[in-house]
Amino acid sequence: MGADRVFAYGAAAGLLGDLLLGDPRRGHPVAAFGRAAAAVERVLWQDDRGRGAVHTAVCVGGAVALGGLAARAVRRSPTASVTLTGVATWAVVGGTSLAREARAVGRALESGDVEAARERLPHLCGRDPQALDADGIARAVVESVAENTSDAVVGALVWGAVAGVPGLVGFRAVNTLDAMVGHKSPRYRRYGWASARLDDVAGWPGARLTAVLAALSGPDPRGAVRAWRADAARHPSPNAGPVEASFAGALGVRLGGTLSYGGRVEHRPVLNSGGRPVAVADIERAVRLSRRVGWLALAAGAAARRVLKGRAT
Known about the structure:
mainly alpha; two-stranded antiparallel ribbon; globular
């Protein structure tokens, strides 16, 4: 069995596993990576970019190496290779957890329980929930669904299509490390610089594919393209910008504006300024669009791998 079929069958099984099972409550491989990365940080940390770069290289390089060794160990068995790819895909994608947390906040808002929605929001994103009213919470959820469709699903599938199991686990390692040390706090402004920049590079293709697929499969393709072209470059994140703008245009809503992270206020540009304010019902619409984008990304990755194999032969 060729590598293209191994990826297609394995990644499809992994996405189905995520859909049916979600993330494990205990013993998640990503959590284990986080503990290992934290242990490396305790040894290496200094307020220094060089030390941070070593941290990034050790953690990401170690994850890629382990993925490569595992893939090499089963390469002679198509069944084992598909199984390994499926398990790796299930471990690194998080579409079901993303949908579950978004819908939980949505249900709280629908029932009028804003305090419950505020309590649940930190499970989904890093916004300061006390600074948000019901409309602000709904907007934060839609933005998080959009961004995490790229970070938690599409980006991993892109790198899985490119490099198999090492690509899957390597992308998740980069993304997790960025969440741990890539933010601009006093402790990590210098130490986390390398992780943040590597995440920008690794996330670039997945973010663009997510934006394209959101435009193709959303309710308003022209609106998605228009918002992407007009507003994406104004976003402070080179990868979140295209994704959030495309989702905003596809759903016909306005995203962006003033945000608060742990007491730090950011004034971001409005995305799709001609759209309407986000309503609670848009959370479910965003989740459904995210699901469609994830499965289309799998199809695109499998097709691309098939084409590359054909050219190689």
